[in-house]
Amino acid sequence: MKLKVVNKEGKETGKSVELNDEIFAIEPNQHVVWLDVKHYLANQRQGTHKSKERAEISKSTKKLLRQKGSGGARHGSAKAPIYVGGGRVFGPRPRDYDFKLNKKVKTLARMSVLSARAAEGKIVVVEDFGFESPKTKSYIEFLGALNLGGSKTLFVVDGNENNLYLSSRNIPKTKVVEKDSVNTYDLINAETILLAESTISHLETILKD
Questions:
Q1: Distance between CA atoms of 81 and 62, rounded to whole angstroms?
Q2: In terms of domains, do 159 and 105 share one?
Q3: Which of 24, 69, 91, 146 counts the highest number of beta carbons within 10 A?
């Protein structure tokens, strides 16, 4: 698959890049995409939720009322869950939500999303550029030149484009990531994927290995 390269003004540069069909033109596997997204979201969970159970409540251990003759139920502790301030029954405990997912599954998931976006014409190759200083207005103008204002975009850049990241972080539905940090969740969450020209060969290398 061949794509034309555009500059930050949205104009064609006269150059084109050849995308590897083994990565950008495979049959998407929806199941592995679901698995990888599930794995990513599970890793985002802190798992620090906790509520006190009966044994962890600090209250008097004195018996509340006599065993018989009160006309009501028999109670022996204010820590019982039916009382205000009592312990919770089977409350949440800290846990790790991570689960094992093979590297080949993650790779296939990313390739599946890239192939799906390429088939939809939702991949744009942008000539390498940078900003002299962080400026949100400059990034908004860049998206406007590509007719992508207001749409969800993911811009994959080289690792030294910090000004691009700083310029985009306050813009809704927009994300800039380094080429080594591309994940399936970000790819599938974006309506259009922007690839810096210099990142394509790197992506093809890490996805073919």
A1: 16
A2: yes
A3: 24
> pLDDT digit of tens for each residue in the chain (209 aa)?
888 999 989 898 888 899 999 999 999 999 999 999 999 999 999 999 999 999 999 998 889 999 999 998 998 899 999 999 999 999 999 999 999 999 999 999 999 999 999 999 999 999 989 888 999 999 999 999 999 988 999 999 988 888 999 999 999 999 999 999 999 999 999 999 999 999 999 999 988 86
Same-domain check for residues 197 and 102: yes
Domain end residue (candidates: 31, 66, 96):
96
Domain count, the chain: 2
Q: pTM for the complete prediction?
A: 0.83
Q: Any idea which residue has 């033109």 for tokens?
A: 25
64, two tokens: 């509340």
Domain range for 137 is: 2-45+98-208
Query: How far apart (Å, rounded) are the C-alpha atoms in residues 33 and 75?
Result: 53
Q: Are residues 117 and 174 in the same domain?
A: yes
Whether residues 116 and 180 share a domain: the answer is yes
